[in-house]
From TrEMBL:
Its main location: membrane. Belongs to the outer membrane factor (OMF) (TC 1.B.17) family. It is found in: Cell outer membrane. The keyword Membrane applies. The keyword Transmembrane applies. Residues 84-110, 468-490 are annotated as: Disordered. InterPro entries: OMP_efflux, T1SS_OMP_TolC, TolC-like. Residues 1-30 form the signal peptide. Keywords: Cell outer membrane, Membrane, Signal, Transmembrane, Transmembrane beta strand, Transport. Residues 94-103 have a biased composition (Gly residues). It comes from Chromohalobacter canadensis. This is TolC family outer membrane protein.
Length: 490
């Protein structure tokens, strides 16, 4: 064996982290929100189905238009004919013994025939109404496609920032576990020399076990968050860019709630699609009413026939040009019933439009209020970290001089890291609420995603950790990570 191929298992175990680190270093740059959004627009199955549905409905316009264009039909026939004729007669003047005479003939011949017919609708209200329905349905489906596209943009942004949220919660859990582990070690050392009672060690151990379980749960949430993003794009991402700490937390522009409501009524594709459904139903009423109207069409036809019978020579041909009109007089009340049916359908779509308009208005109002509260919440949570850190330092000092017990210290530790998690949660809630507000207002597009992407930074990434990859399941791994106090204190 070559000296470059060490066989020692211990050597291989030491070499493995180096190889893993080298592999991570050689990986491509982490994906950002813009890249993932483009992947979703190309690969998302729901959006793909919506595109195909639009194309199918759009093709319906050509189907409806076809009945208004010239119709040409041609037929031809070639046949072999076999004719048998048999005739007989009786002697009417004879008696019972009289007889009759009979004759018969058989002939075979070939025949050919052909016809060509052209028709053109001159007035057909039903077909014109069908074309108008197809046009309006195409416009409605285009709006539904736009709604699905905006929904996908929101879903991708929401899933992306859910990963960042889960990662920040995980980092806070890791830092909390690490801090409580130090507290547990300190309590154990003090117990060993007789400075504290065993209850202090038990309290610290209980807090450490709780922190460890919370960290494991946070790891699972992070993995699930990556999987949700993969479902939207059909691709797996091992790491993504994190959000900059200095992203501005500002009130939405325009600042008036009524302005956002007006924007939503004018631009929300779901509201517009509901209005388009009313237009489609109105056209369907007109189509049903057209059943009472006459139709007028022009026609021209040419017929040719030929055969080789013995007693025939030559061929026959005739041409016909004219107009044809028809007027429905009575069809058992079907047409009138169809008019009533479509009128009720129109009324239903009008109610649906009003419901969609009210629902969108309520959604915009709630989201606008939520975003305004998010702005204040982020600042309040930021200040809560400062306050809880000061409280923790004071509690630790009190514990050292004997005025506070270890339970107070552990509670203060948990309060601090809970505040850190709440601050991260408030930031990402603000971002996703702003994106959803734009979606409900109908102004969520790729420009919004591009602007948001500018606040992501490549210098800090969030990496998917799977259990089979080593994960974060050992305290040795926790000890190598910076604490939230060191890496993300506001």
């Amino acid at each position: 064996m070559s000296s470059r191929e060490p066989s020692s298992p211990k050597f291989r175990l030491r070499l493995l982290p180096v190889l893993v680190a080298a592999a991570v270093t050689s990986q491509a740059h982490a994906a950002d929100l813009w890249t993932i959004t483009q992947d979703a627009l190309q690969n998302n199955s729901t959006l793909g189905a919506s595109r195909s549905t639009f194309q199918s409905v759009d093709a319906g316009r050509d189907v409806a238009r076809g009945s208004l264009l010239p119709q040409i039909d041609a037929t031809a026939q070639v046949a072999h004919n076999n004719t048998l004729e048999s005739q007989s007669s009786s002697n009417a003047a004879g008696g019972s013994g009289s007889g009759g005479t009979g004759t018969g003939s058989e002939s075979s011949y070939n025949s050919t025939s052909a016809s060509l017919e052209l028709t053109q609708a001159l007035y057909d209200a039903t077909s014109w109404a069908a074309l108008e329905i197809a046009k309006r349905e195409t416009g409605q489906q285009a709006l539904l496609l736009q709604a699905d596209r905006q929904q996908l943009l929101y879903d991708v942004a929401s899933a992306y920032f859910e990963i960042l949220r889960a990662n920040d919660v995980l980092e806070a859990s890791i830092s909390q576990e690490k801090a409580i582990k130090r507290q547990l070690d300190q309590a154990q050392e003090q117990f060993d020399v007789g400075l504290v009672a065993t209850t202090d060690v038990n309290e610290a151990q209980a807090s450490y076990d709780l922190a460890r379980s919370q960290r494991i749960s946070a790891e699972n949430d992070l993995q699930v968050s990556f999987e949700a993003l993969e479902r939207l794009t059909g691709k797996r991402y091992d790491s993504i860019d994190a959000l900059s700490d200095d992203i501005p937390i500002e009130s939405p522009e325009p600042t008036g709630r009524d302005n956002w409501i007006q924007m939503a009524i004018a631009n929300n594709p779901n509201v517009q699609a509901a209005q388009a459904a009313v237009d489609v139903s109105q056209a369907e009423v007109e189509q049903a009413e057209a059943g009472h109207k006459p139709t007028l069409s022009a026609f021209a036809n040419y017929n040719y026939s030929d055969s080789d019978q013995d007693y025939l020579d030559g061929h026959n041909a005739d041409t016909q040009v004219g107009l044809q009109a028809s007027l429905p007089i009575y069809s058992g009340g079907t047409t009138s019933a169809q008019v009533r049916q479509q009128t009720y359908s129109l009324e239903a779509t009008q109610y649906d439009y009003e419901a969609q308009r009210r629902d969108t208005t309520q959604q915009v109002r709630s989201l606008f209020t939520q975003v305004m509260n998010d702005v204040e919440s982020v600042e309040a949570q930021r200040q809560a970290i400062v306050s809880n850190r000061s409280a923790l330092e004071a509690t630790r000092s009190g514990y050292e001089v004997g005025t506070r017990n270890i339970v107070d210290v552990l509670d203060a530790e948990q309060s601090l890291y809970q505040a850190i998690s709440d601050y991260a949660d408030a930031r990402y809630t603000y971002v996703t609420d702003m994106v959803e507000l734009r979606q409900q207002a109908g102004v969520l597009d790729q420009d919004v995603i591009r602007d948001l992407n500018q606040w992501l930074r490549e210098t800090k990434t969030v990496t998917l950790r799977l259990p089979e990859d080593g994960g974060m399941s050992q305290m040795e791994d926790i000890g190598e990570r910076p604490t939230m106090e060191e890496s993300s204190a506001p």
